[in-house]
Amino acid sequence: MQRQFTLIMSLSLLLFGGILSFTILKLDPGQGTFPLIAFYLSTTVVILSFFSLTSFLVRRLFTNNELYFSNIKVSFRQSLILAVFVDLTLFIASINLLTWWDLVLLGLSLILLELYFESNKIKSIDKTKQAI
Q1: Cβ(25)–Cβ(76) under 8 Å?
Q2: Residues sharing a CB contact under 8 Å with residue 5, sequence separation 6 or more, in sequence order
Q3: Is the pLDDT of residue 1 over 80?
Q4: Contact criterion met (CB below 8 Å) for 113 and 81
Q5: What is the pLDDT of residue 126?
Q6: Cβ contacts of residue 16 below 8 Å, gap of 6+?
Q7: CA atoms within 13 A on the CB side of 131
Q8: Distance CA 20, CA 6 (A)
Q9: Contact residues for 57 (Cβ-Cβ < 8 A; gap 6+)
Q10: What is the pLDDT of residue 124?
Q11: Which residues, 6 or more positions from 56, have their beta carbon under 8 angstroms from its beta carbon?
C-alpha cells in the first residue's frame, strides 16, 4: 500500500509539475477558461502530492505507527486541506477580493474542519472500545 501511494504521488507530482510549468510559461490567462482551470487544477495536485509525500515520510520516520494506511489517510487529508487553502487564496486574490481577515477566516474554517475530522476519529475509537 505504501509503495503504491508513494509511486502514485511521485508520478502525479512530476506529471502535474510539468503541466503547471507549461501553464505558467506558455499559456496566457486571457485566452479563456482553459488556462485558468489548468493552472488551478495542476496547482492543487502539485501541492497535494508534494505535501502528502512529505508528511507521510515524516510520519513514517518519526512515529512508531505500524499502520501505514492511517498515516496515508491523515497525510492525504491534511494535504488536501492545505491545497484547498492555497487554491482558494489564489483564486480570491486573482479577483482582487483578498484581505487579511478573509485569509484568517479561511484558515480558521479549515482548521475547524480538521478538528472536526480528528474529533470524529476519537469518537469512533471510543465506540469501538465500548463494543469490546
Answers
A1: no
A2: 52, 56, 72
A3: no
A4: yes
A5: 61
A6: 41, 42, 45, 46, 49
A7: 6
A8: 20
A9: none
A10: 64
A11: 2, 5, 6, 9, 71, 72, 75
Contacts of 76 (CB under 8 A, 6+ apart): 48, 52
Q: Helix or strand or coil: residue 27?
A: coil
Sign of CA dihedral 90, 96, 100, 106: negative
The C-alpha cell at 119 is 474529533
Q: Is the pTM of this model over 0.90?
A: no
Q: How many residues does the chain have?
A: 132
* Listed residue (84, 74, 76, 88) closest to 118, CA to CA: 74
Residue 102 pLDDT > 70: yes
For 102, the enclosing helix (H) or strand (E) is helix 100-131
How far is Cα of residue 13 from the mean position of the Cα atoms in its chain? 12
pLDDT at 129 over 80: no
pLDDT for 52-98, tens place per residue?
999 999 988 888 777 777 889 889 999 999 999 999 999 999 999 99
Place of cell 475530522: 117
**pLDDT tens digits, one per residue of 26-35:** 998 888 899 9
